[in-house]
Design brief:
Elements: H1 3-15, E1 22-27, E2 30-35, E3 42-44, E4 52-56, H2 58-66, H3 71-76, E5 80-84, H4 86-91, H5 93-96
Parallel strand pairs: 1-4
Antiparallel strand pairs: 1-2, 2-3, 4-5
Length: about 100
């Protein structure tokens, strides 16, 4: 597991308000599950069903965080695959920036 990616998302999830659902990130071989159904976002490495699943590589994630890759371009080019609740996917930017 890539601990730095996990910790980075955990820190960001604690800085923003509850996302109002569950999101599972599949980043290479790392699973990050964000449960935002309660008053605050809880982050774990649970491989549970989520309202929204986002699959990408660590390289693409770093490029989006640095601004070298536009998130919409990443989705359109297949570098990021999103399934499930798209309104939750739109909230992901607050967890990534």
């Amino acid at each position: 597991m890539n601990d730095s990616i996990f910790k980075e998302i955990q820190v960001k999830a604690n800085e923003v308000g509850s996302i109002g659902g569950t999101i599972k990130f599949l980043i290479d071989d790392t699973i990050v599950f964000v449960d935002g159904t309660g008053p605050k976002n809880l982050v774990s490495d649970s491989d549970e069903e989520a309202d929204c699943t986002i699959k990408t590589s660590a390289g693409a994630l770093k490029d989006m965080q640095s601004g070298d890759l536009n998130p919409m371009t990443a989705v359109m080019s297949g570098k990021v695959k999103i399934s499930g609740d798209m309104s939750l996917a739109m909230k992901v930017q607050s967890l990534m920036s």
